[in-house]
Amino acid sequence: MLAIDRLSALAQPGRLAVFRLLVGAGPEGMAAGEIAAALGLAPNTLSAQLAILSQAGLIAGTREGRMIRYAASTESIRDLILYLMEDCCGGHPEVCFPVQQAAARAACCAPAGAKVRKAARN
Amino acid sequence: MLAIDRLSALAQPGRLAVFRLLVGAGPEGMAAGEIAAALGLAPNTLSAQLAILSQAGLIAGTREGRMIRYAASTESIRDLILYLMEDCCGGHPEVCFPVQQAAARAACCAPAGAKVRKAARN
DNA sequence: TCCATAATTCGACATTCTTTGAAATATGGA
DNA sequence: TCCATATTTCAAAGAATGTCGAATTATGGA
Which SS3 state, helix, strand or coil, does residue A23 take? Predict the structure, then answer.
């Protein structure tokens, strides 16, 4: 099951750290070596974890010269969140309402470059 | 880490099924025996899984006579979703926007009994 | 008190996961 | 071609996880 694969891929400290690092790195992503250096992981250990995250669809890697650059898939995490909300929490306003508010907050929906000037009309 | 505990608690088919069943059962929850019967699990196997879900704070059990009734914690799943959105996806509108929309949809925020007549003002 | 029901705890076993060292593959440059 | 860099693959060891039978605790009723 896809949800199980994604949940278990994230349910490990090292992989969760990798994923969060990549989300923070944005669409450009990071090379495997950079990730390893940033998190203090052995290259082969990291490689195994990158493979698991990739297979779960949470990240994707593309070769660039002699390095492979990995980037987080925003679609996959969005789908996972939607799964948790719809399939697991359908019909429970006390779950959805705070989530909706958080999603609407600037902290979440207005990245550094975005225009937040007037409470973002669109 | 709490997020890791919750993710790994849900990252197992049996436990995910238990959790979804309990979410569907609502605040009244279900007795351990009912859950075992509904999912076809051995009572001792289920007990181990209930313990893991409980320790992660995803469910809570209260004794009623000779049975123990378990109910899902809507707060815990809400917090997990918020964690995935804020800590993992901060500043990515393409993640938050669809989530916000889903949260706003009646399918999610208007349970059977709720009044959906006029787009629920409060 | 004695028994039946509901659920948990314990111990063992098989399976899966994680990490690590060593070797292999892929790429770019001299 | 030869070498250095970047990353992966392989095989093995150790840790963690999931399941099952048997025994145990807790509760209510005869």
Answer: helix
**Which pLDDT tens digit goes with each residue over A63-114?**
999 999 999 999 999 999 989 987 666 667 777 777 777 777 645 555 444 4
Domain co-membership, A31 together with A57: yes
User: For A8, which of B11, B19, B85 is closest by C-beta distance?
Assistant: B11
**A106 and A59 belong to one structural domain:** no
**pTM for the whole structure:** 0.87
3-state SS assignment for residue B112: coil
CATH code of residue A10: 1.10.10.10
- Please name the nucleotide lying closest to A64, CA to C1': C27
Assigned domain for A34 exists: yes
Structural domain of residue B46, as residue ranges?
2-74
Alpha carbon dihedral B64, B70, B74, B78, in 10-degree steps, equals: 150
ipTM of this complex prediction, to 2 decimal places: 0.87
Question: Terminal CA-to-CA distance of chain B, rounded, Å?
Answer: 35
Number of domains in chain B: 1
Query: What does R_g of chain A's alpha carbons equal in angstroms?
Result: 17
Task: Report CA(A66)–C1'(C25) in Å, whole number.
Answer: 12
**Cβ of B57 near strand C (distance < 7 A):** no
